[in-house]
Amino acid sequence: MSNSSNRVSEFFNSDAETSNLLWQYVRSLSPETVTQLSKPTSPEVFQVMERNIIGLLGNLPPEQFGVTITTSRESLGRLLASAMISGYFLRNAEQRMSFDAVLQGTEDSNSNL
What we know:
Blueprint: H1 2-12, H2 14-18, H3 21-28, H4 31-38, H5 43-57, H6 73-111
């Protein structure tokens, strides 16, 4: 029991946070940047994220079931981290798709010259 509580306290300890470079970077971002990064620009990305979170939590229709999820703080933190990583992955894929479309348009323009 004490081992588990030690891990939880280490997880939320401010000293552990300062040693994590990614956490420091995220904390240094302006609120406007965080808002921009957290909003998908396409409905497809939003739908994929929604399906991913539903898959993580369970896929029971709310109109037929009263679903209550109980978890620990640590598990909720892991779920949030998983959702964030998925979101960043999808955002990167979305940006790459946009870059590919722009590059394809540039290549088409150059071939017409």
